[in-house]
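Board notes, transcribed. Complex of a protein with NAP.
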Amino acid sequence: MATRVAINGFGTIGKRVADAVAAMPDMRVVGITKTRPTAEAWLAASRHFPLYGVAPEHVSALTDAGLQVEGTLSDLLQQADVVVDCSPGKKGAANVAAYEAAKVKAIFQGGEKHAVAGFSFNALVNYKQALGRSKARVVSCNTTGLIRTLFPLHKTFGIDHVHAVIVRRGADPSDSESGPINAIEPVLQLPSHHGPDVATVLEGLSIATMAVAVPTTLMHVHAIQVDLTRPPKGLDAVLDAWQHTPRVMLVRGDRGVVSTAQVMEQARDLGRQRSDLQEIALWEDGIALDGHKLYYYQAIHQESNVVPENIDCIRALHGKVKDQTESMRLTDKVLGLSTSTYP
Ligand SMILES: NC(=O)c1ccc[n+]([C@@H]2O[C@H](COP(=O)([O-])OP(=O)(O)OC[C@H]3O[C@@H](n4cnc5c(N)ncnc54)[C@H](OP(=O)(O)O)[C@@H]3O)[C@@H](O)[C@H]2O)c1
């Protein structure tokens, strides 16, 4: 029987997770929640996702707007094996008690703290440890991006220390309220929270991060410096490690991909849904190796790179697919990502 998935919070991440779940042969969307009759509520109706209000007062707001509403979040949880909490950052923690009371497995997003689930997930690193758990947190877009490219380096060469500077998009494309729009805003609390967040998955990794927000909506860019324990003989060995890593896409400046604008254009040309790019774009001709020090740049499509991780996390928590590669390969095949990196 297909895994029954509820999505609580239907915004940037929630609508993408819902579409991905609906596309999987082994899952189905049993419902999504809204608090208001926004465009996303009508999108859910057009996708035939059963619509629920988060609380009773939301049911009337949605019904008054002419939407068909099936009940409240507590009704929805009765229908689900797994709930994916995609509510705004820091709001998910308040839902833990409701999920536990309904005995439904729960996935939280990177806007929540590690403690919300006591387990932070990345499919490459700890799928097996997630099997059958009642709760997990899929780490944020930046953390997911750092883990995807650091993990193969860690496995192959060992890592003594990582220093990364994160250039963050000021807002998501659909957001007309956030900024900055004409400034560069450093995160003054140093090191930034991203490093410790990576270490919730890559336990024991020595990593320090800094971050600045810039006026762009397209992607984040990371400038990363890694002290490797066992220096590779040359860059080919480093490239080989990344070429054999799923969800990492090498791009080249000398082929015209010189900025996040061209990376996203490539995603449009690939014809992906919403022009999303779930892979991490890593500049193949922007890598340097100096003894044990490795330098590289990567770009993160913040709206979509965590979507495949959520799908794998659903499978791991429900426990029907025990093998990490089987789950990741199926996810990537259905989402149209390259599967040539799998054994
Ligand atoms: N956007 C990103 O770049 C990104 C990347 C990775 C991870 N994340 C994480 O993913 C989570 C969701 O972020 P997002 O960007 O998708 O936020 P978002 O676009 O603001 O969507 C969240 C949605 O939740 C709904 N909502 C509000 N209050 C709610 C409540 N009490 N219960 C359930 N739903 C509620 C809102 O819709 P209505 O009130 O209109 O119903 C809103 O559209 C956060 O933890 C965030 O940190 C975000």
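Residues 141-157 form the longest helix (17 residues). The two ends are 28 Å apart (CA to CA).
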